[in-house]
Amino acid sequence: xxxRATIMASSIGPFRALAGALRPMMVARVCVRQLAQPTSSxxxxxxxxxxxxxxxxxxxxxxxxxxxxxxxxxxxxxxAETPYGDVGVPTVLEPTAAKFINFLMYDGKKALAQSIFEKxxxxxxxxxxxxxxxxxxxxxxxxxxxxxxxxxxIANIKPLVGLTPLRKGGSVxxxxxxxxxxxxxxxxxxxxxxxxxxxxxxxxxxxxxxxLMDALRGEGAVIRKKIELHKMxxxxxxxxxxxxx
Length: 245
Hints:
With 245 residues, this protein is mainly alpha-helical. Helices cover 54% and strands 7% of the residues. It is elongated. It has 8 helices and 2 strands, in the order H-H-H-H-H-E-E-H-H-H.
């Protein structure tokens, strides 16, 4: 028993010596931290006082810490609150407009895509109002529903049928297939944005505006692409029976 106690005392001795050596360092560290931070009494004292900050050993720094500043949170602006005023963009976007913004977004910059969409809608409204006033209808027309023009242009672009490749007998056949409404909208938005990016010009909103107005009149590169797809489906209509053979 005496031997075991001697062994335990000899093994605990180095740890006690290490703790005794580290204790002054810990006390010095607490003193330095408290000296570096001014106390509340010094901050509330008279201006020009040069008295050193007082502190007590063993006190926590929580009581001497300054109160955190309150960050004012501003509400997120809606689409109606734009620098262009009331341009006809609804506060809650419709599914077609929201999907158009997502298709237009590049490299994750959705705020930029939203800004381009708002500028395009504003350009449609201002341009159509100017055309109406120039044609002598300014007294009758007081407002333009830009979102209705946008939806009508998208409806004119939507294709009705598409081509589905099918391998049969060692060869690939193009099968005309009716498109679902979701696929029609996806193709229309993709064609419109691609045609606007390939169009000559500087601003994306100007190019989108011209493509939308061409589609509204049944013209432009997007309408030609839709007509070509319908012609290819008409030319391959004999392949419909291959799917069921």
